[in-house]
Amino acid sequence: MIIGLNSYIDSSSRETYNSNMAQSNLTNFSETIESDLYKIGYRIPGDKISNADSNRIVFFTDINNDGVPDTLSYYVGPTSELINTPNPNDKLLYRILNSQVPKSSSGGVVDFKLTYYDSLGAQLTYASLVSQTIRNRIRSINVYLKIESLYPVDGIYAGAEWKKIIRPKNLN
Amino acid sequence: MLVIIGLLLFSIFMLTVYRATSSRVSLTLLNEATITATGLGQSLIDEIQVKAFDEKTVNSSVSTSDSLTLSSSFGKDAGETLVTHFDDIDDYHNYTRSDTLSRLGQFNSSVIVSYVQKFNPDSKTSIRTFSKRIDVFVMNQALTDTIKLYHIITY
């Protein structure tokens, strides 16, 4: 009975720790993504988004407000980049500013999905978004992010998810 | 006798541990639901605030508040069958939306739009003013209470 109780306390502590870590990572990621995406097109006179796909976006903005346009991109890598972690689904989420070395995070991202909408709220298909004309019709972006713990507890990965439709002021 | 007392104390200890763990799990779920619900609520406010202030200001300007829509007429206008047809803030009055996420299930959001007093924006009023308050409520089974967000738009 004592061993059982000890095991229960141990697994529940690890589960809580994993959940808290996932939530903390989710909050950090979402704040950065939200802050960046809201700035799409800031002080950019021409095309504002140069690549829009389900798990990748490349856009222009004056991120540091110095009058020089910057290129910022987000994308997730394949799961094969993190084959040494116990979680088979986690991926690296990359953030690249201009030609800097890509910054990635292995904070347990298992899903990062972007969906694009026009001014009427109609979803733009990914196939159509290869055209710059269609990309110029983007007015809002739905971001879905799911984080899981790197280690399972009793076979279950603790997690947290976030979904938000972002309407960058300079696209509207 | 001592053994019985020992077992009793241990049982009480076990119950305390289970209760503490259970409340910790609930709190974790509550945190997650709060993060998600706040994001969904904020999305809805963002969506609403880019619309015109009033049906009367969609294509023209208004100089007196008496020209604005009566609060009793708030809600979607004729022909606005889909949310994508909504063109002004008060079209969202009594609007509801459901978002289903894989972990915590369904999040139900609802909106109330009302006029507020110009110099006291926390006070709702039925009199037409150039300030509207958007109240967004988000509910989920993991939340102990409804998440409430509000935003005031001024024309």
Separation of termini of chain B?
78 Å
Write down the secondary-structure element order of chain B.
HEEEEE
Low-confidence stretches of chain B: none
Give the largest chain-chain interface (CB within 8 Å).
A-B, 29 and 26 residues
User: What is the H/E string of chain A?
Assistant: HEEEEEEHEE
The number of distinct β-strands of chain B equals: 5
Helix content of chain B: 25-40%
How many DSSP helices of chain A? Answer: 2
Question: Helical stretch count of chain B?
Answer: 1
Number of domains of chain A: 1
* Largest sheet report of chain A: 8 strands, antiparallel
**What average pLDDT do the residues of chain A reach?**
91
Quaternary structure classification: heterodimer
DSSP helix fraction of chain A: 10-25%
Radius of gyration of chain A in whole Å, from Cα?
19 Å
**In terms of per-residue confidence, which ranges of chain A show pLDDT below 50 for 5 or more consecutive residues?**
none
The shape of chain A is: elongated
| C-alpha Rg of chain B (nearest Å) | 23 Å
The tally of domains of chain B stands at 1
